[in-house]
Here is the input.
Amino acid sequence: MTFVGQLIIPKQALIWGERCSSGESVCFFNFFNMKVLLAGSTGYLGTYILKELQARQIDFRAITRNVEKLKPLGLYSDQLFKAQVTQKESLLGACDGVEVVISTVGITRQKDGLTYMDVDYQANRNLLDEAIRAKVKKFIYVSVLEGQNLTHLQICAAKERFVHDLKQSGLDYSIIRPTGFFSDMKAFYEMTQRGRIYLFGDGSIRSNPIHGADLAKICVDAIESPEQEIKVGGPETLTQSEIAQLAFEAIGRPAKITYLPDWLRRGVLRLASIFQSKANYGTTEFFLNVLAMDMVAPQYGRHRLGDLFSQLHHQALMDKALST
Here is the structure.
């Protein structure tokens, strides 16, 4: 049940509210009569959001370049909209009949001639323009924790330029700011397979990365949340040394960790800026900067890193057994 003024109204019956006298909007939806547009549905987080929408039986439409890629997930043809978000004209009609847009559109590595500005900014801008044309009520966008303070990095500059446009659009919005994804933590497990984990500094930098399934719940909850900025991380806040220990525990070996001086990280960044292509440097720039700062946000979810490392190790053993 939800309280509105002095009325007690069943949550499922609430609909989009008007702006109140303070200028803020009250954003409630009737899930039974609402349609969501999901952009970025084939990526790591997008796939989990799609499954969460299905689990909650929320009507949705997914944008995809490859319709066949999503059909195995049980989507019907009318739930699929074939478009290339970097091509504005292909999005015409994508938001028709839609109340809420959720976008996870973005790239980790610049490739195929596309830059962060082409995808993280312009593709989302194309989607926002279509949402405005179709009179969508709310736009939910996944950026990064502390992105507004990291605009000297290529990827964050693109993301935060779009955040600025979204805030100026007149639409209700929620900016989701996760600390980092579990998928990024696979690098720790991969180093254990080579016998040693290397860390810059003394290993005391803290973070609480979040699993895609847990973050997907936050993104879908944002549909009816009045919060405009949502900072979120996973249920465990760990130092880099503790993450390394968990990775070695999963494979049943004593931890072997080498701590590298931080000046070496800065040196690698400097050399990368000179010798790497602009396309490749953006990834190096982002990760080597984030590795040197705490990325901690309010804790949420149930998935734990130790379980991820155990699952990765089990899969590796299974793959090895099948190959012999």
User: Anything to note?
Assistant: The chain has ten helices and 13 strands. The two ends are 57 Å apart (CA to CA). The domain at 9-180+210-232 is CATH 3.40.50.720 (Rossmann fold). Confidence is low (pLDDT under 50) at residues 1-28.
